[in-house]
Sequence to fold (226 residues):
Amino acid sequence: MDVTKTAAVISGESEPEMGWTLPAYQERSRRQRDRLMKAGERVFAESGFWQAHVADIAKRAGCSVGSFYRRFQDKEAFFFALQSDMAAHAEANIVKFFTDPACRTEPLMDVFRRLTRNSARTMKGIEGYYRALFELSLRGRDVWPLMRRVEMIEAAQVVDLLRARGIDMDPGKQDAAHLAIRMMHGQIVSNILHGPGPYSIDDPRLHEELALMLVRYLGLEDVATV
Fold:
């Protein structure tokens, strides 16, 4: 499904505000903004959101504090700009994964195994974002709309794939797929923030168990190996 069309299934969600960051018109300015984004994610991973300082982010990015404030109003504005970038990349990666022709031909268990492995690897690479996300949420900030959007897009892609493979998917399966994706993401985030439970995030056994969870919860045991 086209990502624009898929996003339309999300009811009650407003588009994210785009006023968090000043536009980067020149290539040099865009590169510096990207360096700040990468540096901020790493600083959040090491220190958390509240203990991170703008000066630390700027220093790691190799720029001045003034350069930071020319692009972002403050540290929270920086986080929401980072979140917007992360969500855009996540949506693009989801569509890329499900448009891979292998998803239509290889056994579903293999598809879900790849999905969970790719999700774990990608999410581990931005652990600072997730740490900041939860810290802000615990202080009452409304940080979840984009995360719910990504979940629902991924769930819609799962449902579309199963229908394309000739599997009957009644309307209630959309909600079931959404919950299954949330459970998968939740386990991965828990692993990132709290450590193995019981498997590490790189352990193939974790990916296997999460793939089995998707198969069983969606009632696909009879078709998972074909």
Observations:
- Residues 155 and 177 are 5 Å apart (CA to CA).
